Hints:
The complex is a heterodimer.
Chain A: H1 3-19, E1 22-27, H2 30-35, H3 37-50, E2 57-62, E3 74-77, E4 81-83, H4 88-100, H5 115-118, H6 136-141, H7 146-154, H8 157-167, H9 179-188, E5 195-200, H10 209-216, H11 218-232, E6 236-241, H12 246-261, E7 277-282, H13 292-299, E8 323-327, H14 328-340, H15 342-346, E9 356-363, E10 369-374, H16 379-386, E11 396-401, E12 407-410, H17 420-425, E13 434-439, H18 444-458, H19 464-481, H20 487-503, H21 507-511, H22 514-522, H23 524-528
Parallel strand pairs in A: 1-2, 5-6, 5-8, 6-7, 9-13
Antiparallel strand pairs in A: 1-3, 3-4, 9-10, 11-12, 11-13
Chain B: H1 6-9, H2 18-28, H3 36-47, H4 52-62, H5 66-75, E1 87-92, H6 95-99, H7 102-113, E2 126-131, E3 143-145, E4 148-150, H8 155-173
Helix pairs in contact in B: 2-3, 3-4, 4-5, 7-8
Amino acid sequence: MTIEDLRERAQEERDRQGQLKRRILYCSAAGCISCGSKETAAALKQSVKSSGLEGECEIVGTGCMGLCGEGPLVKVQPDDSLFQQVDAPAAGDIVTRHIVKGESLPDHLVDQSAPFFASQVKIVLENCGRINAESIDEYLAVGGYDALGKALSELEPNEIIDEVRKSGLRGRGGAGYPTGLKWGIVQKAQSDQKYVVCNADEGDPGAFMDRSVLEGDPHRILEGMAIAGYAVGAQQGYIYIRAEYPLAIERLRLAIKQAERNALLGNRILDSNFSFRIDLRIGAGAFVCGEETALMRSIQGRRGRPKPRPPYPSERGLWEKPTLLNNVETFANIAPIIRNGGEWFAAIGTPKSTGTKVFALAGKIRNTGLIEVPMGIPLRTIIFDIGGGTPEGTEFKAAQTGGPSGGCIPTEHLDLPVDYESLAGVGSIMGSGGLIVMDSTSKMVDVAKFFMDFCADESCGKCVPCRVGTVHIAGLLQKIISKNATIEDMKLLEELCIMVKETSLCGLGQSAPNPVLSTLRFFRKEYEELLQPVEGFVPTNTVS
Amino acid sequence: MTDSSTTKQSSHPSGDNRFKLLDRAITKHHGRGDALIEVLHAAQEIFGFLENDLMIYIARALKRPLSQVYGVATFYHFFRLKPNGEHVFVLCMGTACYVKGATAIQDAVEGRCGTKFGKTTDDNKVSLISARCVGSCGLAPVAVLDDVVAGKLTTESAVGKVEAWIQSEQEVGV
């Protein structure tokens, strides 16, 4: 296939869709499937058939539509009405009453002018919930693989890296390393073989952004990786994905097959001299494999144990060859940047944190689901406008970002803009995008213990501070929770946290104490209330 | 050991046909040692769990020391060295589920089954497994019951499900 063929095929698909009267999209992401969206789809099909609309209506399963707490979701195009909690009878109503008679179905209709939708800016998720993730034609119809075509035919590798650099894109896995800089280093590295690796080992409990992108728009990741491969001079890519995401694995496998069949992956992509293959590597449930050196060892079939850096993967990574390693969301941003230019991307968000960020909203919040917001948006807007605040009768207490590596952000910092530096300033991290809201029923010491148990369990055991330190911190927290601790134990706890943070080998250990340190900082009173009374000790009165 | 092709060499003396499927998976990865995790995935899918004998077989086929195969199999949570019970209750213990009360469900289910998460009941009926996050946080608390995701669980609905499993087993047993 050449670029002309590609555009022609996209146009054919657009024409075909244009001839249909209605396209009925149902969410077939993991969340809605577990609410019964397959039954919804069957009811839609049945109803379309019995209403005699088969020729003019198409029923399509798409990726995540965002409002995961209210599934199954159904969207009707071209009028773009969105319906929530669509069980089988409601699905019948959508066809017989909404489509045939033009009624609005207020019981299920979602108000899309609500802040949940209006405050979002979609770049990464632009196709999620709009296209059939299992059809390459639908991806082509919305401009898919255009960026790869443009990169191969019009741009030199240097120009691509310049564009990425100009965009100001930073690593979406959480650390925020400038993507363009990383690409530049890998490109300059001299080697006969280089690799591109996509980190889809979304291990942070409470985060499902990458999963939704992979399930809803898998071709976009392949396109981003192929562009990266061309830019840095790699011919082989790997996607390291969790075994816990079977649907995402299935869709990626299908997408790779489709792309290979259409000369968008494999030898001589789009009739150019560039060849690029992508293989999947399935993880096996180890949180530490989200760390880049551990991930690469796991790809090579070994225990996922981190190595000291330097050398960084960009110099010596997989099989000791220069390796470019980026997160799913980072790769998802590449095609739009190449299509629209780096400056377009840099204009979104804040000067130091450009673009958008996808968050998985969950916990004690009204609208749970997947959202994408411009960087720099205040946390308050995310939680109270988009998320709708905590459920009735409860009070907001803290927002947790960054999972076991992050921290809890209390009410007084709610006006903080969401960007890499601001979140780090209050002892949390941007993280990969899990955002869990806690209300007054959550006890912060218990939360700290929960995360510390997680880290103790997931520590790979290579370095002592992490292997031993996390267990002891968890023990001290248990001592506090069971009201056997004294103020001395609190001091020891703090010392131990700082020691583990400063001396651990990899990111897991270095960030493991964050949940404890941040709750100690903002909710110290809750710890002190659990201590054994000591003469002369005055507890903290106000939250510092 | 000779250097003849992996498939020929690996036919298992037990005559168990499932080894043919495993051989196919090994051949697909050209018998390369760095495909160890992929091969273990295939093996677990075919056999249900990783027996010692199976790991020895894989070590020979991939020409890796058994210590490495065993090391990898025990490092990753996903690999099982023991078979699951007839029914599997996977409770998500991700942050969102935790905040929404997964611990209470954990206690209730453990109480009903008389065993802890990570174990199988003595009669081999129900395996309790806790997962890190199944990624359906919007539906928290979530469990995966015999491969079907069940969202918005309560202690009652979770215990009810386990109860149904145990009851049906007893009827069959009688």
